[in-house]
C-alpha cells in the first residue's frame, strides 16, 4: 500500500472549511478617503466596528509618496524640497574667527561653572 505524505485519503491539499468568509473578506467594512496635497485620492477600508480614534488621520500616499489626510479641504502640505548646497555655500555660512573664539569662551565658562558646583 502506497501513501503519500500526511494527506488523508480522499482529500486535496488546500481544501477544507476555510473559505472567504473565514478569512474576513465578507466582514462589514467602511471606506475612508484620504487626499494628498496634489489632490490625489486613496481609499482605505477598515472594519465597521473599529472605533473612530483608531482610524488614522494621515497615511502615506502610494502614488505620490506624500502624506495624505482625511480632510479634503485641508490636505497635508507638500514636502519642501531643500535646494542642494555646494561646499562653498556651507563655507560661507561658517562663523568668523571672532565668533568662534567667543563661542569657545562661553562653553569653557559653562563647564567651569558646572565643575565648580
From TrEMBL:
The record lists the lineage as: Bacteria, Bacillati, Actinomycetota, Actinomycetes, Micrococcales
Q: Which UniProt keywords apply?
A: Transcription, Transcription regulation
A molecular function (GO) held by this record is: bacterial-type RNA polymerase core enzyme binding
Gene3D superfamilies, alphabetically? RNA polymerase-binding protein A
Homology family = Belongs to the RNA polymerase-binding protein RbpA family.
What is the role of the protein in this entry? Binds to RNA polymerase (RNAP), stimulating transcription from principal, but not alternative sigma factor promoters.
Q: How does it assemble?
A: Forms a complex with the RNAP catalytic core and with free principal sigma factors.
Name the UniProt record assigns to this protein: RNA polymerase-binding protein RbpA
- Annotated segments matching region Disordered: 1-23, 57-82
Which biological process terms from the Gene Ontology are attached to this UniProt entry?
positive regulation of DNA-templated transcription
Amino acid at each position: 500500500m502506497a501513501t503519500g505524505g500526511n494527506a488523508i485519503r480522499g482529500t486535496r491539499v488546500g481544501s477544507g472549511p476555510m473559505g472567504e468568509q473565514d478569512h474576513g473578506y465578507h466582514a462589514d467594512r467602511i471606506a475612508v478617503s484620504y487626499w494628498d496635497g496634489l489632490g490625489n485620492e486613496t481609499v482605505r477600508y477598515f472594519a465597521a466596528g473599529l472605533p473612530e480614534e483608531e482610524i488614522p488621520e494621515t497615511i502615506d500616499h502610494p502614488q505620490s509618496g506624500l502624506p495624505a489626510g482625511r480632510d479634503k479641504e485641508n490636505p497635508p502640505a507638500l514636502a519642501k524640497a531643500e535646494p542642494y548646497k555646494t561646499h562653498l555655500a556651507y563655507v560661507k555660512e561658517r562663523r568668523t574667527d571672532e565668533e568662534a573664539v567667543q563661542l569657545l569662551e562661553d562653553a569653557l565658562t559653562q563647564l567651569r561653572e558646572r565643575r565648580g558646583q
